[in-house]
Structure formats: structure tokens, C-alpha cells
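Deliverable D2.4 — example input (C-alpha cells):
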């Protein structure tokens, strides 16, 4: 698809969203000054992708996929704001770098980061897709979502370190263990010298919508540090969950 065609797609979505009511092809044509043949082809593609819908009267409206993406985007932005202060408090308490993990479609990313007090800080870029089989946050989301689990188990499992798990059967068992334990751990599986921990954040429906990730230097990742850090990370997640309407009295598993 050409760049102009992409721009026209967004122009159409913007117009439909602003009007707030279904529009006929001729109305869209007049509003955007587009050729009928070109506009019809674009709309046909958008309908097939559920980006827009068309009714029996040939009126076009914003489709379910667009609405879902918009809601996820708003939710992600809200979560980042809601989690910011709890993340800061957690980083101060445990001393390690703390991240907010989010799912965006079929991707899992870090959307925010608060640095700890360690001299060595990891340069993990925000917004880059995380591998689902060797990062603590990626494994956590995959463990609690069947579609992501299938994506992880059915795709390539690159070995990044000597500790990276590349056997789908063993990884599937690990997902089950993560669901049972209620948290995920990555022991130098994505990066040498780094142990990652991830705990889920649930919304009012109980769905896992985000994760608190703590990145610990391997030299600090002792059992004593883990015993102190995990409850603090869970408390941080609970604080965010309260603002999302989740009942912390229910099981987190």
C-alpha cells in the first residue's frame, strides 16, 4: 500500500470518528475530495479488515478493530499515568530498575521505566517488542493468554544466552508454573548478568492488562533479595489494580 493510501485511510477514520454517525460513500468523497473508484477500493479493504463497517444501506462507520485499538491505546496511556508513582516508590524501595510492561495487540512492550540506585543501569528501550520465551514480562503475558502462548510456542525460539529455553514443551510447562506461582522469572535468559521478575496487573474484570517488571543484576539476585523484592513488586501491582477497579481480595492466579 502506498504512503498516500495509508494517509487516506487515516483521513477516512478521522472523518467517521468526528461525524459520529454512518456516512455514505458520496458523503465521504465530498468531504475528503477523493476519486470515487479509489475511495471505494480503500473502503472495501478497510471493511474486510474490520477497520470500518458497512450496513445494508451502504453507510460506513468506524469498525470494531478500530474501536478496540483506540480503547487499548487510551487504556495504555491511563495505565502509564496511574502506575508512575507506584513504580517510583518501588524503585526507591528495592533499588533496582523497574518497568511497566503492556500488551499492544500481539506485541508486549515496556511502556515506562524508573531507574533504581545501582551504578550500572540497563539500556532497555521502551516500545520495542519483547521476546515471549525468554523475558520475564514476555513469559508472564504468554502464560496468562492462550493466543500469546501459541505465538510463543509456535514461532522460532532464538537462543540469546546459554540459559535461554528453546524447547517448546519445557516452555509450556514453565507457563503453567508461572500461572501457579503468580509471577515470572527470567534467569539470564535474555541477557547475561540480568535476572528479571514480572508480576501481573489485573483490571476490574480480572484480566492481566499490564505487568510490573523488576530488572536485577545477577550479582544482586540472591534469595534474600528475591524474598524482599517480590512482595514489594506485588504491593506495587496491587496499588495500580485498586485504581483499575480490581478486587485485591480475589486470587491473583
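Example output (designed residues):
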Amino acid at each position: 500500500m502506498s504512503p498516500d493510501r495509508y494517509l487516506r485511510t487515516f483521513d477516512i477514520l478521522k472523518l467517521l470518528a468526528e461525524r459520529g454517525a454512518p456516512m455514505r460513500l458520496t458523503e465521504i468523497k465530498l468531504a475528503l475530495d477523493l476519486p470515487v473508484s479509489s475511495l471505494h477500493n480503500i473502503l472495501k479493504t478497510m471493511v474486510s479488515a474490520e477497520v470500518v463497517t458497512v450496513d445494508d444501506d451502504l453507510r460506513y462507520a468506524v469498525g470494531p478493530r478500530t474501536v478496540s485499538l483506540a480503547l487499548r491505546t487510551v487504556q495504555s496511556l491511563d495505565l502509564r499515568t496511574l502506575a508512575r508513582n507506584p513504580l517510583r516508590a518501588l524503585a526507591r524501595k528495592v533499588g533496582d530498575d523497574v518497568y511497566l510492561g503492556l500488551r499492544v495487540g500481539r506485541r508486549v512492550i515496556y511502556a515506562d521505566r524508573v531507574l533504581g540506585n545501582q551504578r550500572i543501569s540497563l539500556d532497555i528501550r521502551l516500545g520495542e517488542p519483547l521476546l515471549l520465551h525468554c523475558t520475564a514480562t514476555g513469559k508472564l503475558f504468554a502464560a496468562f493468554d492462550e493466543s500469546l502462548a501459541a505465538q510463543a510456542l509456535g514461532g522460532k525460539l532464538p537462543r540469546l544466552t546459554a540459559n535461554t529455553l528453546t524447547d517448546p514443551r519445557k516452555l509450556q510447562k514453565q507457563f503453567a508454573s508461572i500461572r501457579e506461582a503468580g509471577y515470572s522469572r527470567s534467569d539470564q535468559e535474555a541477557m547475561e548478568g540480568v535476572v528479571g521478575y514480572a508480576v501481573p496487573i489485573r483490571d476490574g474484570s480480572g484480566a492481566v492488562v499490564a505487568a510490573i517488571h523488576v530488572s536485577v543484576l545477577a550479582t544482586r539476585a540472591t534469595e534474600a533479595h528475591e524474598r524482599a523484592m517480590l512482595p514489594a513488586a506485588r504491593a506495587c501491582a496491587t496499588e495500580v489494580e485498586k485504581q483499575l477497579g480490581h478486587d485485591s481480595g480475589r486470587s491473583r492466579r
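The chain has two domains: 3-62, 68-243.
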